[in-house]
Amino acid sequence: MKLLVFLCAVALANARRFHIPISERGTRFQETVEVGGGYRLAEVPAHNNRDHIRVLTSQRMGETMYCLPERGVCFLMATAQRGGEGQDGALETELTQLERTGLVAETDTVTVQNDWVVLEQNMDRSALSDPRMRRFHQDLPLHRVDKLTGGADFLTETSDADAAPASKRQLISGSCRNDAAPQRKYAATSPTGCGYGYEYLVYCAGQNSQYSDCPRYHVTDYFFMTCLCCPEHTAKEQCLYCTQLSCSGYYDNTGVC
After folding, report:
1. Given a cut of 80, is residue 17 above it in pLDDT?
2. Which of 34, 102, 232, 253 has the highest count of CB atoms within 10 angstroms of its CB?
């Protein structure tokens, strides 16, 4: 145990922290990026109706944990699905320059949208081999996600008055009209329908497999849950079944994400 604590302390001591000024739709804020010791940690404050996020990457595990402290939930994803930021040395050079030169504007970045679907809910953190990842916001539920590719069928979020719900017979039998087979569709995890549109900048120096010229890119992540729906269903309320995402609550610990 003493050796483990010592190794963690060394990793933290070797990390460098950068404060990058950002300008987005008239709002100015700082994104904090910590590099070193085998980890990358990015933190973005709440801004422009976007929530505060903290994103920790373990280079050894090849996994990234994406946490929303106030909303009370974390997501675990494969780092390779997000796109990398290059080697530590080159990245630190880029971040040092950005700290000195001033604001990074939206016009200086490439926009990227990632869509994620929850695969496994309420993961047991003891299964994570990296001690820092296990402790990162350990009081929050953790859900494993996978990146959605093209062709996914997304549902709208509507009120009960706007969507005809599935009939009681459909819900019991799991059947659709004309004996059609139910289909997998995806609904936003947020009750507002925005799907948790969380934004941050990723800085890249050198080349990687996803972006040949490796620009800075502005990422928005959306998180979805899986629903079983009939072909004609377009809204979550109409579907036969939808997974329900658990979290510790949005600000007030109500259990509502």
Report:
1. yes
2. 34
Q: What angle do CA 247, 225, 210 make, to 5 degrees?
A: 105
What is the pLDDT at residue 154? 87
pLDDT of residue 4: 45
Look at residues 174, 154, 162 and name the one whose alpha carbon lies nearest to residue 113: 154
pLDDT of residue 77: 94
Per residue in 124-136, pLDDT tens?
999 999 999 999 9
Amino acid at 16: R
Could you state, in order of their start, the residue ranges of all structural domains in the chain? 15-242
Torsion of CA 211, 215, 216, 222, to 10 degrees: -30
Of 201, 171, 219, nearest to 95 by C-alpha is 201
Of the candidates 197, 207, 203, 205, the residue with the CA atom closest to the CA atom of residue 218? 203
Polymer length in residues for the chain: 257
Please give the Cα distance from 121 to 35 (Å, whole number).
29
Instruction: Please state the separation of Cα 75 from the chain's center in Å.
Output: 6
Q: Please tell me the predicted confidence (pLDDT) of residue 75.
A: 94
Q: In this structure, are strands 39-44 and 27-36 parallel, antiparallel, or unpaired? A: antiparallel
Q: State the first-to-last Cα distance of the chain, in angstroms, to the nearest integer.
A: 36
H helices of 72-208, in order, are 79-82, 88-101, 131-135, 168-173
Can you tell me the distance from the alpha carbon of 67 to that of 201, in angstroms, rounded to the nearest whole number?
A: 16
pLDDT single digits (tens) 79-127: 988 865 667 777 787 788 778 877 666 666 667 788 888 888 899 999 9
